[in-house]
Design a protein that fits this description.
single chain, 164 residues, mainly alpha
Length: 164
């Protein structure tokens, strides 16, 4: 709520308390999502000053909720793409193909779902947030040098965000 109010002030958006409370309650709790909602509200208000009616706000909330897939959905799609079982992704397996698939699933959950590191780690058998961060950074490095992995990750990413 404080982040939302601060962002609205900095962007010159008059954000009524009831709307701020609703956005803070119903949007995913990460900063990127909250800042994006304020930016979208600012654009809408600059185009049509009286256009942020309750119906439009409900549409904004529905759109933002729908755009965020569950970690389970991301993990399942990743497991299928890599030809491993979902149970293996969530296990302590150290087989190379499972480790890579798990790291990609964590990376996508962070990028697409914008989940917190702790939430992702909890889904993957209670792994620590630093493990999730390490896997995300590893995949980011690999994407720059491994064209096949980059193509695979891009196709998975496009499932939820087709414009990317």
């Amino acid at each position: 709520l404080a982040l939302l109010r601060h962002a609205a002030r900095r962007q010159g958006v008059a954000l009524p308390a009831t709307l701020a409370n609703r956005l803070a309650d119903e949007l995913p709790g990460d900063a990127r999502s909250l800042l994006g909602a304020v930016a979208e509200l600012r654009v809408r208000l600059s185009e049509e000053p009286a256009s942020a009616d309750p119906e439009w706000i409900e549409g904004l909330l529905c759109q933002r909720r729908a755009a965020k897939p569950e970690v389970h959905q991301i993990a399942l799609a990743t497991a299928r793409r890599f030809g491993v079982r979902l149970a293996d992704l969530r296990s302590a397996s150290r087989r190379r193909n499972v480790v890579t698939a798990r790291a990609v699933a964590m990376y996508l959950a962070r990028r697409i779902g914008r989940y917190r590191l702790q939430e992702i780690g909890a889904y993957f058998a209670g792994r620590d947030h630093t493990t999730v961060l390490h896997n995300c950074r590893t995949i980011e490095r690999l994407l720059r040098v491994d064209a096949q992995l980059a193509k695979t990750v891009q196709s998975l990413h496009a499932k939820w965000e087709p414009n990317k």
